[in-house]
Amino acid sequence: MAQKRRAKGPGPSQGEDPDEDYALSQSASQVQRNLERLSPAHVDQKVSELVQYLLVKDQKKIPIKRADILKNVIKDYRGVYSEIIKRAGRTLQQVFGLQLMEIDPKHHTYILVSILPRLEVDNLKQDDCTAKLGLLTVILSFLFMKGNAAKESAVWEMLRRLRVDPGVRHEVFGDVKKLVTEEFVRQKYLEYNRIPHTDPPEFEFQWGARAAKETSKMQILRFVAKVPACGGAGGGENRTLKEGEGSDL
Amino acid sequence: MATQMTDGHRRFLQVLMSHGIMEGSVARTLHRDCCEIHKVYYAHDKLDDFINVVNIHLQPFFMQIRKGMSEDDGRTYYALVNLAETEISKMASDYTENELELFRKTMDVIIISESGFASSTNILNLADQLKTKKMKKKEAEQVLQNLVQEKWLSERDGEYTLHTRCIMEMEQYILSNYQDLVRKCNICHSLAIQSQVCETCGIGMHLPCAGKYFKAQTEPHCPHCNEFWPHEIPEINRPDSQLPSSAPRERRRTSSSGTRRR
Questions:
Q1: Which CATH class is domain A121-231?
Q2: Which stretches does the entry tag as region Disordered (chain A) (predicted)?
Q3: Is the CATH number of domain A2-114 1.10.357.140?
């Protein structure tokens, strides 16, 4: 079946893994030929496994690495990788209203994003997640108002004003520091980077790749305008809003 | 009859997935809201037809939205389940090898027991005897907490049973793995983890099923062998009742004979 061999010539991207290289280097006609040698039922099975794998990973908000897809799901079906991914993507769109989106072209990581029309009030799920989302929105808004990045110390100061102290165990959020610097970062909502040339090391927060895809800066601006704690004056952002309406934020 | 997926169906599916499992009345509200938002044809009593449309499209991918019953209160629940019976696939990525072993061993105890429960002491002993890697008490307690939070197990008075979601997801796996060791309810013929058992002929029933079957009978008899039914019959409120059905639990605590065999 699919034999391991080094890719000849440039592939669509330079994977560092020979398996990846092989999977990605197959031309469309090669994929078709490989497909003909496989039982359609088995290929369908692989597509279904991939769909489930992507859904499970995404429910945990863990970005999915292409290398993991190849290693854990595709395995021997490397020769028809592009076809399997294509069919899985189509299923996700048609049945689930989700789109497979690459958020990191360098490391090839994907997330699933809903392509259903955004709702004004998407409050159908009420639990811990709503509270976490609220906290995250506050942080994203603050970062946005600070020009998309802010020092760690500034973020903690702002949260303390809202009675969320990273040094104190919070009734709803638990270990706040861990939630913000680890969970939100792992889920790609925030970035937590060391500021170069600082000693002792200082860190800053920025919007993460998932935040950029899942929300729009327009939504954040509207939120900020209403909440003085985030820097809004409760109405003074009107001018920015009007200017912003037209552009693609 | 329309069999096309609409955005209404897709939104329903997305919300159901994010909840994991959803109680009947919540699902009905969601059905109404999704149809309203996306201007899809809506009939209040046609939730099952609505779900069937989704299931037709999920079938090639070995997934289904399944309807199940809670063994505690008899209420209807909906969950998206994976039909592949070969592995505990949904759990595999969240738990380490020894955590999965602990879960499987706990499931063994739960299924083999008459009551459908495993005590925490029992489980902590299992943790100490794991083949993959022994687990200390604190670690095992944390794993149990995670399993409860993720709705694989549910806890009551320090004892653990399988969560409704777990039973719905793993029904195929349990039936094929445990075969003759599992009990099926004599009334509804589904898998029964918690059950009342006839002491004479051995048939079993879900507590809510027993409640419905024996309703208002002063002298309940086994439907199979006609012997006197030795257990306290749980009082079941109307399934759509807004109030939590606390009657069976209270009865179980205060009754002398109890619904569990010794």
A1: mainly alpha
A2: 1-29
A3: no
